[in-house]
Amino acid sequence: MAALTELEAAYLDACNDPGFQLELQTQLASFVGRPTSLHFVPRFSRMVAPGIKVYLKREDLAHTGAHKINNALGQGLLAKRMGKKRIIAETGAGQHGVATATVCAMLGLECIVYMGELDIQRQSLNVFRMKLLGAEVRSVESGSRTLKDAINEA
Question: DSSP labels for 2-67?
Answer without folding.
Answer: HHHHHHHHHHHHHHT-HHHHHHHHHHIIIII-PSPPEEE-HHHHHHH-TT---EEE-GGGSGGGST
